Amino acid sequence: MKKITIAIDGFSSCGKSTMAKDLAHDIGYIYIDSGAMYRAVTLYALEHGIFKGEDMDAEKLREEMDDIRISFRLNPETGRPDTYLNGVNVEARIRSMEVSARVSPIATLDFVRKAMVAQQQAMGKDKGIVMDGRDIGTTVFPDAELKIFVTASPEIRAKRRYDELKAKGEDASLDEILDNVKQRDYIDQHRATSPLRQAPDAILLDNSHLTIAQQKKWLKEQYLRTCERLAASAQEETA
Ligand code: DC
């Protein structure tokens, strides 16, 4: 079957990654978590004195952008890709509250977005990719054959994130997480470059009341339907 591009966008902590990873694994596609790339740049910024208290030295980051190399390597234990920053596995560190609290301002910088979008497009040039993020269906792969836009209430998303951190043994406050979720939603939707928007041809999924298994099943159905639709229109063209 001809490989396609699958773009999954939506709000933070919506379970996009979980279902995207699973679908990619199931159908033998590459999976890329584009949020992990912005998180890796944020970790770099934290470790290289880009943040000074509440301020950010964006010029220093701009000068150092070429020194930031992000890659993904399959973790044989989890069967999923881990994020590497300049050759070092940073998968656990990029999920910390410290990175979560600082990532939105980094993701608003147009030179950061430009660099990340170029890398993402290069990763998807041969199709056969599932990528999740905020601007995948609108900016990175506007011609993706399947686009999904995922949403859920902020309270439900905060609770999911809280449970995730607790399970990892991290200290977390539900109120703090809810504030962070709302703040990130606002910044994601209001930034000048590539704000979070549902692409006109994206299918909307509100997963507030769906289990992970239900979401995965729904996504697989959308994929199969898209393949059937493409096969039918290819047949029509040759007829
Ligand atoms: O999906 P996430 O929470 O790991 O994303 C981290 C941050 O990166 C979030 O603030 C939004 C931003 N992001 C983005 O601006 N564009 C993307 N394609 C993916 C993530």
Please name the defining characteristics of this protein.
5-stranded parallel β-sheet; alpha/beta; 3-stranded antiparallel β-sheet; binds 2'-deoxycytidine-5'-monophosphate; globular; 239 residues; Rossmann fold
Care to describe what's here?
This protein is 51% helix and 18% strand. The protein has 239 residues and is α/β, with parallel strands linked by helices. Strand 5 (70-75) and strand 6 (80-85) form a beta hairpin. The longest helix is centred in the C-terminal third of the chain and has 27 residues, at 212-238. It is globular. The structure holds 2'-deoxycytidine-5'-monophosphate. 2'-deoxycytidine-5'-monophosphate is lined by residues 12, 34-35, 38-39, 103-104, 107, 133-136, 184, 188.
List the helices and strands and how they pair.
Layout: E1 5-10, H1 16-27, E2 30-33, H2 34-47, E3 51-52, E4 55-56, H3 58-64, E5 70-75, E6 80-85, E7 88-89, H4 97-107, H5 110-123, E8 129-133, H6 136-140, E9 146-151, H7 154-167, H8 174-190, E10 203-206, H9 212-238
Parallel strand pairs: 1-8, 1-9, 2-8, 9-10
Antiparallel strand pairs: 3-4, 5-6, 6-7
2'-deoxycytidine-5'-monophosphate binds at residues 12, 34-35, 38-39, 103-104, 107, 133-136, 184, 188.
